Amino acid sequence: MRYTYRLRPGATAEAALLAEWGRCRWLWNEAVHQQKTGRKPTFAKLCKMLTEARARNGWLRDGSQVAQQQILRTYSLALTHSFKVKGRGRPALKKRSKTLPSLDYTLRGFTLKDGRLRLAGGIIIPVVWSRNLPSEPSSVRLLQDSLGHWYASFVVRHDPVDAPEVDGSIGIDWGVSTTATTTDPAYNLPYQGYRKRCAAELSKAQRKMARRRPPRGHAASKGYLRAKRQAAKLHKKAARQNQHTARIWAKAVVDNHQTIAVEDFKPTFLAKSTMARKAADAAIGAAKRELIERGTRAGRRVVLVPPAYTTMTCSGCLTRAKQRLGLGVRIFVCESCGYTAGRDENAARLILATVERDRAGVDGVRHAITSSGSGLRAA
Asked: Which of 46, 117, 277, 287 is the 20 to 30 Å CA partner of 55?
C-alpha cells in the first residue's frame, strides 16, 4: 500500500528537488528521442547510456543515480505497456511548463531519521507525520501538485485484515445524473456537483488568466500567477470533496455487504460527449477505484460485470429488448413479463443477478462471464 504525507521543504531543499527533476526530465526526453529515431531503448541499454552520460557531464553526476535510474525504469515500463495495450500511445516528451515534478527513490536513495526524509545528495526534508507507517518503506515517490505543495508517497507492506462477515449483496450501476445507483436506495451516491458550485468563481479566475496571459517567450506576471493559483485551488478543492465523499460512501457499502457487484464502466468516452463537464464533476472513476480497493482490503467478494446490454435486459426474466433505449427513456418496461422499474435501478438489479447466478470465473476482483459472452440470455 501507499501512505502519502505532506512535505515541508525549505528553499534550499526545494531548489535541489527541482534541479533533480530537471536532470530526470532530460533523461526521459533523451529516451523518447532514442525511440523516435527507430532504436529500441530497453532498460539495460538506457542504463548503459546513463553511465556514459554521467561520465561526460558533471551536472548529471551532481544528481542521484537512483532517481535517474528509476525515471528510466518508469519509461521502459511505460513503453512496454504501450505495445501491449491497444490504443495507448508511446511515452511523450515531458515539457517543463506542462509536467509536474515526480521523483522515485528506492532504499538505496533515502532514509528516515529523526522524523525527516533524507535523500541522496544531502537533501533533508521535514515530513508532516499525520499517521504512523505500519512497516519500513521499500520505496518513496516525491511529487508536487498544481499548488506547489510537495508530498511523499511511501510504499509499505500492510497485512490485510478481513472485515467481519455480513449478510447481503448489492449491485451498483454508474451514471451521470446519479453517480451510483444501487439495488438498495439507501446506498445510492447522488451527484454532488462540487465543481458546478464553484463554476462562477472558477470562470472569474480563468478570465483573469486569459487577460494576463503573457506573450510567447515572455515571463508570466505576478497577476497571472495569482490567477492561475486561484484556479488551481478551486480545482483541488472540488477534487478533494469528491474524494472525501467517495471514501465515506465506499466505506458504508463495504461495511454492510459481503458481495459487491460493480459495473465495469469506463467513463473515458464521456469526455468527447456533451456530458463531459458533468461526468468529470461526478468523478465516477475515483468512486469506482475507491470502492474496489476498499472492498479488496476488507476481504469482500468484489465482481466486475461488463456493462454491455445491462440497460436493455430485464432483471426479472433476463429478456433483452430488441431496440436500444435512448438516454431520454428513464423507465424500463419489459415487453415479455411486464416488469417496470427505473432504467438505472433495473441495470443495478441485473448486475447483481449476473453475480448471484454464479457466472463469474475466479476469486477476488474479477469479471463476470455471461452466457453469451457479451450479454445475458433468458435462463
From this structure: 117
CB 320 within 8 A of CB 376: yes
Give me the helix-helix angle, 11-36 and 65-84, nearest 10°. Answer: 40
Count helices and strands (H / E) in the chain.
10, 15
How many domains does the chain fold into?
2
* Closest C-alpha among 313, 308, 349, 310 to residue 333: 313
Q: Are 61 and 23 in contact (CB under 8 A)?
A: no
Domain match, 344 and 218 both: yes
> Domain range for residue 343?
169-367
Q: Sign of dihedral through CA atoms 209, 224, 26, 5?
A: negative
Average pLDDT over the chain reads 86
Three-state DSSP class for residue 259: strand
The pTM for the full model equals 0.79
Closest CA to 287 of 205, 184, 172, 376: 172
Name residue, grid cell 448486475.
351
Note whether 140 and 242 are same-domain residues: no
Amino acid (1-letter code) at residue 70: Q
What is the spatial distance between Cα 160 and Cα 151, in angstroms, rounded to a whole number? 25
Read off the pLDDT of residues 36-89 as tens digits, 9 standing for 90 and up: 887 778 889 999 999 999 999 999 999 999 999 999 999 999 888 877 766 677
